[in-house]
Queue: 3 jobs
Job 1
Amino acid sequence: MEVDMWTRIAQNLLPAPRCHLCQAPTTTTDGLCGACARDLPRLGAACTHCGLPLARAEAGTLCGSCLADPPPFDQALMPFRYAPPIDRLIGALKFRHDLAAGTLLGQLLASAVAGRSVDSLFPIPLHPARLRERGFNQAAELCRVVARAHDIPWDSRSLQRLRATPAQHISSRRERLRNLRGAFAWQGNTPPARVALIDDVVTTGATARAAAATLKRAGAEWVEIWAVARTPPTHTGNF
Ligand SMILES: [Zn+2]
Ligand SMILES: [Zn+2]
């Protein structure tokens, strides 16, 4: 009797779950109501290798730059365009350390990669100076949620960043790639055969290329890129 009474009181005290975006009451477990989940900016037709949005894509379609110069990673999964409200959520995680936004984005990424089979996850590391300044690595926050959702081990130590991301004004792809050569180092045991690199947003793909190449050199056979969002292409040949 007494237990029932306390259970009832506790239930009345607990706030009803609300949609993270519109605050409407929701019964879903991922923190979004049905309407907001439907309105998310899904990437849609994209290169099956690098995720570059394409006007029309059929199964197995590759973009021009992947045909001409295949990236060192084997597959990229990026469920969303970097557009509202995904860009706002990523900003909230990155610049305000909004953990609720991080959990939501991590869960969205986790459902996008359901069914993939990899042995270990590696968040794209921040340069140590940037990590000190920010206090946390947003990619590691996402990685933690995805790893827990699919019960995959993750490692935020073996892949290290030796140099910061090149400035955005370096616009030529060749220059960016040259700048990122040697940006990452591997300091651990041989990685498992199949791995995924986790990031919040892929912009030029130069970082993903450099990190994937480092994992391949360390001994990984299959490297996937799992990122929440892809920026819309502003010019061709991003990868
Ligand atoms: Zn909503
Ligand atoms: Zn491509």
Job 2
Amino acid sequence: MAEIDFHAHILPGCDHGSSGIETSLRQIALAKAAGVDVICATSHFYGHQIGTEAFLDKRARCWLALREHLKEDDPRILLGAEVLAFEGIERLPQLEALCLEGTDLLLLEMPFAHWSERLIDSVEALSERKDLHIVLAHVDRYDRQQIEMLFSFDRVKGQINVSSLKRRFLGGYLREWMREGQIVAVGSDIHGTDTGYSLWQRAKRRYPAEWNAVMQETGKRLSKLL
Ligand SMILES: [Fe+2]
């Protein structure tokens, strides 16, 4: 079974996750040492700062700069985005181009501030699009009831950060979500060379059944690419 890091900030200079090639290569070495086979490079996309096309151009340049330094046995890198939700996002041109490459999976980050009714309506409108599947970024960082409300929409699932799995006693609902298939991906959410990958192995050892269930779900969704 492939180990897939669904959420990582490893493209040099694309966002604040990596300041340059050296940091990116160190991040990739840490991922490899942790047993990661595939890294989804999900650079931040902030629609109020940059247009979709400009973002994709920038991401392509960062990827080209990194690619020539990679070795054959390095983890495979797939290009994606962590898209910050905003009111009216359903009208963003070319939103589907922000899905993880080769898939219809959109990693959507909810704001940490109050969610307005209009914002929730926008997420619901996205969930009604048959050409997308939403994966909510780091659902472990929000209020349980609010996330469960979004899970009640069609085609909305969640991704959990590995940092939330370091706890010996995992919040009962996170475990339930993992077992029930609400959580379909795990992410290091690595920025710089912080703890993302040192926690990877620990989390896997601590919750093997839940971990495997989630990795299987991710693998199913990426099966055409692996
Ligand atoms: Fe992130």
Job 3
Amino acid sequence: MFLMWIVPLLLIGFAVYAISGNKLVTVLKPVADRTCPQCNQAAQNNWKNCPHCGQAL
Ligand SMILES: [Zn+2]
């Protein structure tokens, strides 16, 4: 059988693609992934206060 080996190869390839795809999403995710509850401006995760309105984050 010529196609027997291609099935696990495809599964491995898909798993690698899924894992690297998730990593790619994490890498490409913007730093500011949350917003201020007060003024709805983008806020970075390490910000303690909103620079726009001073709301504690
Ligand atoms: Zn704000």
